[in-house]
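Q: I'm teaching a short session on how sequence maps to structure, and I want students to see two examples side by side rather than one. Could you give me a first protein with its sequence written out and its structure tokens following it? Keep the formatting plain so it prints cleanly on a handout.
A: Of course. Example one:
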Amino acid sequence: MKKIGNILIVDPIKGEFVGNVLVDGGRIESVIPKNSDVYKYIAMPGFIDLHTHGCIGKDTMRLSAEDLEGWEKFLYSQGVTAFLPTTVSAKKEDMLRVSKFVDEYVHERAYTSVYGIHYEGPYINIEKKGAQNSDMIRAATTEEIREVISSVVKLITMAPEVEGFYDVLTVLKENKTVVSLGHTNAGFKDMRRAFLYGVNRITHFPNAIKGLHHRELGGVGAGLYLDFEIEMIVDGIHLAPEFVDMIYRIKGADKIMLITDSIDAAGLEDGKYNLGGLDVTVKNGKATLPDGTLAGSTLLFNKAIKNFKKFTNCSLRELAKVSSYNAARNLAIEDVARIEEGYKANIVLLDKELNVIRTYLNGETVYESN
């Protein structure tokens, strides 16, 4: 049995308290509160990134087993204990190749932080393509969805106004693939229709969706007015700090999921990169296409949580929600994202400035700062 002691335990449900955590067999055996306010490190559930295209030169569309192992290892330094490698709009053959590779990778390992895959596109609106390759964007068909969807595909970003959207929802529901609205020019009426069909999630809100107008609420207004759960890229580039704080005040911490939307340039120097066949330039950490369109981010998850805390002055309990608990609940992962008896011992230790000190996956130390 392993003891993680002298810590401020931050559980998204029970809150914050000093205590010890006992780990056995990869799971939390017990959580023992102490009558004290003295601690060395902060213990939070391991972070979950449901939207990341790559980092440190690794890209979902160009992965080898060695690449994905390196990606995993690097993300441990960010406190990430579960993530979804995310595609861009691509040919059916490439979607199948990537999903098959990730499926085999996961099943060949006793434990891994790779939870599955996120298809971002290709069933999106070309008018809101952002940094997606327009040559790959297309309508959704039941035939193609049945081919490309498998148990490893946990999440798919689609536009509700695209032809075939409602035709394929039944297939996706049967596969337990969560649908997220994104890269969409849908107005409020179409967003509300999708919401009433059970689609209650929005990709990188409010980027690449229709803006708010006082006579037409659009996608932004729908995200605020209806009970959507939303991803946010809190890098200080995609969203102004004041906007992040406003959304936190309106939606509350229960409805926000931090993601990075990182590309292969994350963790590397400025320079020239490629995303789904498109040329990307990174300057001062900002990734853009030649026309200035934002092309994902170079955000790292540890920076995302620091930014959210700084921009909103949220509690640590709320930070645990936006960084792990909400994402786990969104994908119906029942045994992670809490520091509670019976849960997997996926835990990140941070100092009081929220720097990652140590990361545990299934109770094993997978990262420790020097």
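Q: Perfect. Now a second example for contrast.
A: Example two:
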Amino acid sequence: MNIKDYLGILRLTELFSEFFTEELLNLFKTHNYIISKYNRGSIVHFESERCNYWDIILKGQVFVQKIDERGNVLTVAEFNIGDNIGGNLLFSKYPYYPMSVIAKIDTEILHIPKDFVLQLCQTNQDFLVKFLTCISDKTAILTSKIKSISMKSIRESIIEFLNYEYYTQENKKIKLNMTKKELAERLGIQRTSLSRELNKMKKDGLVDYDAHSITICDSDIIRLKNLFSLYVSQAQVKQ
């Protein structure tokens, strides 16, 4: 696979927007890099694997998951085309992935080694600032999300999710773009626990639901948008 085919995607990202196409092409000609394909469900990086590259998603989608000793799955974040991962680990004294990175669909990823990243930072100061900002924001957001999930009850997590989707979809009938299993993993709970709590919320008159949607029946669970903006910003991991 040739980097020429992906330069358009790279230049659409904020990090590479200040580079000219010819400038990027020359940089890639003089440095090593890898473009890898991953089938749906493939593990891109194992938990505890050493981070040797800064990854940029050229096609597809990946998610970051943590599986505890009891088999519970927590989906911490999802990354799409143009997003990058590993920058906060690459220069760390402990450069190991704390969670697994898995391809949600067929995915292509550009792997850039540390020396190439350093060259990019030295070549373009705007890139350096954006790179540092990006990895700092991702670290803060992911830490905050893990902390918030661990401190919330199942009902509070569901209500928070419904609020986010309500303001995104602008509708009390929330269409689910994921399965109940994927929603449970996103909330960091078991599938059976999610079903049990949704059933309780339905009996309490808070929501109604089917296989493809959840409808907010009690408007009191909708929070004011200005008080909810922090969660919305945390949910938007990609920069």
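Q: What should students look for in example two?
A: Point them to this: Residues 152-235 form a domain with the Arc Repressor Mutant, subunit A fold (CATH 1.10.10.10). Also worth mentioning: The chain has two domains: 3-150, 152-235.
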